[in-house]
Each structure stands twice: as structure tokens, then as C-alpha cells.
Amino acid sequence: EDGIREYKVTGVQTCALPILESEKQFRPDTVNPLNTGDPLPVRMKDLNDSVEEYLNEMIFFHETFKKNPGKTTAHPSFGYLNYEDWISMQYKHLLHHAKQFGLVSAE
């Protein structure tokens, strides 16, 4: 076990994957099909702890795929993704939230 979480893959991944391979960004009204509407409980006591955990997870992510170049892991909506797919998805996901919170222009 490499520590990368495996998720149950849903039936929506076949129509979602093309967006990862395109220049298109997530629409402003994109809804996560797994979101129940209820916020998850807060896990971190402050922003610094959250940033530190995120950075540690990103280091782990890159090291895992560097050691296993052909590896794919399950995303619950997009299906099995390789390293490049995960990078594309994370970029689009973070940009979506940066626009949502007004950190970058929505244009």
C-alpha cells in the first residue's frame, strides 16, 4: 500500500474526463456530485496547519508518482487518473475556487 487513497469510482467518469484533457475550465456553477450540501467538519485549528498539511500531501503525491510513473488512482467522479490527469484536475479545481473566492479574475 502506497498510502494513496482509493475511492469508489462512480458512473460519471466517462463524461467528465474530456474536460481534463482540454483547455476548458470548470464552469462557475460546477457541482460536485458527491457533495451532500452539508459542510465537512473543520479538521485544522488554523490556516497555517491547513497549508502545511496540503503541502505535505502534495510532496507525497509527487513522490508517489515519481516512484510509480505508470500508476493510476481512482477519483470518485473522473475515474482512474494518471499523474498528468491529476495535475490537470488539481489545477482546474484550485483555479475554480480561486475565482469563486475572488482571488483571481473570473475572466
Tags for this entry?
mainly alpha; 2 strands; 107 residues; 3 helices; two-stranded antiparallel ribbon
Strand order of the largest sheet: 1-2
End-to-end separation in angstroms reads 42 Å
What share of residues are in beta strands?
Answer: 5-15%
Query: What characterizes the major β-sheet?
Result: 2 strands, antiparallel
> Which residues form runs of ≥5 with pLDDT under 50?
1-7, 11-15
Tally of alpha and pi helices: 3
Structural class: mainly alpha
Mean pLDDT: 81
Count of distinct strands:
2
What is the helix fraction of residues, given as a range? Answer: 40-55%
Q: What can you tell me about this protein's structure?
A:
By secondary structure, the chain is mainly alpha-helical. It is built from three helices and two strands, in the order ααββα. The protein has helices at 13-20, 47-67, 83-100; strands at 73-75, 79-81. Strands 1-2 form a two-stranded antiparallel ribbon. Strand 1 (73-75) and strand 2 form a beta hairpin. The radius of gyration is 15 Å and the shape is globular. It starts with 12 loop residues before the first helix and ends in a 7-residue tail after the last helix. The model is unreliable at 1-7 and 11-15 (pLDDT under 50).
List strands and helices in order, with pairings.
Elements: H1 13-20, H2 47-67, E1 73-75, E2 79-81, H3 83-100
Antiparallel strand pairs: 1-2
Brief overview:
The protein is mainly alpha-helical and 107 residues long. It is built from 3 helices and 2 strands.
